[in-house]
């Protein structure tokens, strides 16, 4: 083969190969071509040694050259079977031919290598169904030889034994009724006849290309007769390549979920009772405004549910918009022998797809033919190393020859990325049967309630129980008094009935006052405000309550690649010449002298050496530039891309110009045995220059001289002394200890080419003869660098009491080095995944708390770690960007995914998406989560104080009053209990977090909802407010000199009590801005415009009620003296709060616990009686709620069924038969599923 025939000019240096010559492939199959390792240049950069295909850009493709394709003849088969083997079973007879596989009839298999040498699973077990996916193996009316489950066994996990049992590429193609060269027929509709498993796996025989033409003609005649949906049988059996979308809820469903909350249901019951009694009062001639209370509660319930549903719906829309651009794309497929571009959703099992650098395979498959293909499967498997792919034919040959081993990999995984090389592969699994689809399906599991949800649910139960108990006690007390005076009552039956209704109204009012209807609104508003602000700080909260959960996170299980690091290999250190060091690694705090950067080092060198470094990187590389979305992107192996980026960013290299101006002579592709690659180019001042790069130890061993910084137009050199060699070797060792991948660069000059000693030798010079007496250029250390913000973020996590654990697929040395550079504590347990997954539950209990780094871990290891941490009582957050992180992200309390580089599976499974892929944003989420929890605690502290005061005041005043009426009317309580609560919830929910919020440890799940400090403020303020209001109620007339027999004076006193009570709540709201014992309650208040504005609205509302709301609110305008009395009594709660904060918590805790235990001892028997009394009522309410839920759910489902999406034309028969397809069954740990939100 002449060089000129293969490469016309150096301009073809970066051009992609056009096609593979069938003649060359045939010749290579027949061993006519012995080696292509040393080719005369200018070559294509994708040439590698020991290939089975030749790449020739001079060949004219049948499609006009606009598309890349791989063309080859039918590969020669590796075993020779006689005609008896192909004879139909219907007329077969005993044959002496060796068969390839053991058939179901029990035929004898041909001897070959034991499968244990190339697979951990024996062939007999390779296709055994997994218990969770048995349905995938059961297909009705299967016209193909294989079921989706059998095909999935190829890659779940990668199995050469399954590949062998399915007959290799020929068996797969025959069983799937596909052609490895021409692909699927565009005319295919419904298929006639069947292909059995034995027939398909028996096709691993010698077959001529003309047989394939007959096969294609037969297929065409079979399929042309059908007029149904294209590829109908393939769609019916194997499904579409439509990844299972997460079912998104409509607004009505979200509204229904928001309503299914215990507090919401309890409020609804109270609203119905209050509204009924109010309407009865109005219709019977009583109060005309009592019904407003019931309506107002209904409005509150509607407002809360709408706000919660609207927030959830908004988050769903934001997430849908975020992932929309990645849903559909076009890929190149071979059909009827021609390359066509089709949507990824239209790929079928049996399609032949092209592979090019930068592609992300949309399906699982097996490589048909390829040239130097390497894939990055880190997003799917967590394995950071490049995976070299070998064609299925070559793997089959190795299996038949007995030379197969476990490292052989012909499998293409969906969701991976092609780094280099071109080729074609056969699609074997699509949609939910593919690796990508199964991981996505495993993320769709039910979510557990958050810690705050659990605590608020318990609080709702206690409040409902205590409120009901107080109401029943009040009702019984007033009813007994009513019965006692009934014989002496001379009123009409209507008036007696009205008196009874007044008693019932007061009792119901106590329930309404006791229930903190502002609580769910406070939680919702706090979350809504926090999530809105978090979007501006690059946190998209998909699940609303994940925000508050993150505030209490105790452990973060972080992926390394793409989360702590940049997922971009970068040159971070190096030594040029013998002693010019540069270092871009993070500098320790105690490091005294700064290390120069690579740009500073490069500027010190003379022009000749600068040119040598640039050419060593630019020319000795097969990576290339490609323009994507308006910007240039380097495509190739991560190591070569890192070197090219170094030269572009720091050396001013222009890759296109360097390669266009260079005259290339010969390329030595990378060879794994010699661990290096080389290139020869013409150097005008010297002659020819041989550049080599590879494993640094081998490069140093081959070097005898070292370049120097001598002036002149030519690079000067000097002998590499033993001292210099030791110095460079020590540098290499130091880089290796930092887990850097070291690459050495050397060169050698020749006056002519080929060298004079090789001119008499035919062919190209051998690499081994040239690789001696080399000149040392330098060594560089390559690493996936840390994100710059990570060390500071981890330091903040430590300060906040949050432990960070690294879980990665990398080896232990690299993981440990990265963890140390992050600032993580590596004094604990460091373990590898294979050992971790073998631990028992008892051993896990001991290891998991001490575990710091889990290396070489699988997705299952990560999920086990997360679930065990949760079992130990930790609140777990998980970060990740890859498909393999999906199950762990979903299992965690909070899952963080990366919005830029994260896969769609990771985003679907996560609770929060980091829009800037910044680990620092996790600290922001922790701070906002704690702010949400603080907002809820602030409101609880405020609300419970109001409720205790209001219930006690209502209870005592109703018993004291002869007419059974409370001092606060129902409408006044409506303002206090509803409007004030709503405004207070919004005011206290809008405080942004401060840096000090990270100075405390996270709150454990087992911690009570109320702290001792909160109880101190609640009880202290309630005592003060009750003392003031009861003093005014019982002695106000005497103190103020009012004649209470005068209705106007009585009204004025009642107005003073009401006004004082309201103003005490306004001032107490300022007290509740702090949850600790510090005194500055105004900290940050002037920056919170929401708080200031809402308080102005509340003050304005109270002024309007006193001056213009006399009729509705049963009040009268007050004079200046009366206003002064109200404000003076109310504002004293501020200095009283200072007094309370001076009381040590531990002293108060002793007194508090004593009274709690005494009350429990006294009231526990009463509570048991009360529970027995109220239990039937509770069951009735629960039954009514259950019936209402069922009715609502059925209505929603009925509406959805009636408005289902229309079928598209192609999916007709597929949709009709979708119920026959196997469903995903996921084995999950025991979890608690709740219907509350």
From TrEMBL:
Keyword annotations from UniProtKB, A to Z: ATP-binding, Calcium, Calcium transport, Ion transport, Magnesium, Membrane, Metal-binding, Nucleotide-binding, Translocase, Transmembrane, Transmembrane helix, Transport, Vacuole
Domain Cation-transporting P-type ATPase N-terminal: 204-279
InterPro entries per UniProt: ATPase_P-typ_cation-transptr_C, ATPase_P-typ_cation-transptr_N, ATPase_P-typ_cyto_dom_N, ATPase_P-typ_P_site, ATPase_P-typ_TM_dom_sf, ATPase_P-typ_transduc_dom_A_sf, ATPase_P-type_domA, HAD-like_sf
Domain of life per record: Eukaryota
E.C. number(s) listed in UniProt: 7.2.2.10
Compartments (UniProt record): Membrane; Vacuole membrane
Biased composition range(s): Polar residues: 1214-1237
Principal subcellular localisation of the protein: membrane
Any matching Pfam family: E1-E2_ATPase
Membrane topology: Multi-pass membrane protein
One cellular component (GO) term of this entry: vacuolar membrane
Catalytic activity: Ca(2+)(in) + ATP + H2O = Ca(2+)(out) + ADP + phosphate + H(+)
Compositional bias annotation for Basic and acidic residues: 205-220
GO molecular function, one term: metal ion binding
Membrane spanning stretches: 263-280, 292-310, 462-483, 503-530, 966-988, 1009-1035, 1089-1113, 1120-1138, 1150-1171
Any single biological process term in GO: intracellular calcium ion homeostasis
Residue segments, region Disordered: 104-123, 205-226, 1199-1237
Family note: Belongs to the cation transport ATPase (P-type) (TC 3.A.3) family.
PANTHER family documented for this protein: CALCIUM-TRANSPORTING ATPASE (PTHR24093:SF423), CATION TRANSPORTING ATPASE (PTHR24093)
Biological role stated in the UniProt entry: Catalyzes the hydrolysis of ATP coupled with the transport of calcium. This magnesium-dependent enzyme catalyzes the hydrolysis of ATP coupled with the transport of calcium. Transports the calcium to the vacuole and participates in the control of the cytosolic free calcium.
Protein name: Calcium-transporting ATPase
Organism listed in the record: Elaphomyces granulatus
